[in-house]
Amino acid sequence: MGNGSGVGRPRASGAAANRPDARQAVLEAAGELFTGAGYAATTTRAIAERAGLRQASLYYHFPAKEDILAALLAETVRPSLALAARLVAGAAPAAVRLWALAYADIGLLGGARHNLGALYLLPEVGSPNLARFRVERAELKAAYGRLVAASGVAPPAVAIRTDLVFGLVESIAVIRRDDPALDVEAHVREGADGVVRLVGAEPADELRAEAHRLLATLAD
Prior knowledge:
Number of strands: 0
Helix content: 55-70%
Oligomer: single chain
Distance between the termini: 48 Å
Radius of gyration: 20 Å
Order of helices and strands: HHHHHHHHH
Structural class: mainly alpha
């Protein structure tokens, strides 16, 4: 169809695959379609059309649809994993570091343009092609576990509290799916408060302020 079809932008021609923004255009289009129409119902042709590319140009960056899914899921975990590594190694009180990680992590999942966290529920996440994502997500959960343990939780309860903490953090994806008008910032703040309560700490204003200062320092 021509430009009047209403489906995406016009297809690019020539060396479109080498456009500096081509890969990101594919990810943006796929994120919209996967979270809207659904992963199974979305074809690579539809993604290419939405991205303004030829289908061959899409394959230049992503040989298969699962490769696009893997790249999108990586965006939901790697920033938090990098932050977690610095927080685990930090010297601030454990509850402060835990609040900071939860606040940033929930904010990442809740504030993204598309609700990519909802893709965690796809059966395709168990495929061999998504192994790296599963490993990185497990590493992030383990970092939460180290902060839970450092907060003074007794060893027999650390695994259970970590499960609860991680579940609370990721719950924003389901809540956001059910309530597109969600007040994300309020949920992020309350979610981080809930996380530190799970380890027996009280999220007082002083704790929150210290966590925000810590995040600002690490962002520099």
